Amino acid sequence: MAIKVIAQLREVKLGKNPGKKFVMRPDLYVPIAEKKVFQEAATHSGISAGVIKAAWDAAGEVIRTWATEGHSIPIPGLGTMRFGVRSKAVEKLEDVKTSLISVRRIIFTPNVDVKDELKNTSIQITCLDEEGNVLKRVTSGDSGEIEDNENGGENQNGSGSEGGNTGGGNNQGGNTGGGGDGGDDLDKN
Q1: CA distances (Å), origin 164, targets 178, 182, 186, 189
Q2: Measured between alpha carbons, how far is 161 from 178 in angstroms, rounded to an integer?
Q3: How is 8-43 classified by DSSP, letter by letter?
Q4: Could you report the per-residue pLDDT of 9-19, keeping only the tens digit for each?
Q5: Can you list the alpha helix ranges (DSSP code H) found in the chain?
Q6: Residue 183 DSSP class
Q7: What does residue 39 show for φ and ψ, rounded to 5 degrees?
Q8: Would the pTM of this model clear 0.85, i.e. be above it?
Q9: What does the pLDDT look like over 57-109, one tens digit per residue?
């Protein structure tokens, strides 16, 4: 099992060093039908797909309700989810308004098992020229470091990573994925 990535040669016009560069993007995956997920879970558990779907639908309703009440919700086997906001910081009390909120956010924090699975999964990169012809294929030899969005955008071994954090209090900085608006994160807990 591997994560597939495409690195395609493109003309990059923005940034410090414009020019032709290999730009990476995930290879498009085929979405898995919800029905197939329930059938596979039924096969692994011995519980009927209908019962699993009914339980999952009920859990989904509880997760939505509690998250909108400001709770951080455990999603068994995966991690936790909560809602938050990205907003601008102001110095004066009278300047605090809802218009400072630029976006509402869904914050997912994977558990250790999910992080370990990602860390131990190889990445296969297919390099393409501008026309889409395959130039070479590369399989990852990286350390498998995982960005930890709950700790100021640091990865698992503690060194900083680009992109800022997706939550965890009052965070000055960017958003996950690199380059933010310099606003603050004010997340509901």
Answers
A1: 7, 10, 13, 19
A2: 9
A3: EEEEE-SSSS-EEEEEEEEPPPPPPPHHHHHHHHHH
A4: 999 988 888 89
A5: 34-45, 49-68, 112-119
A6: -
A7: -65, -40
A8: no
A9: 999 999 999 999 999 999 999 999 999 999 999 999 999 999 999 999 999 99
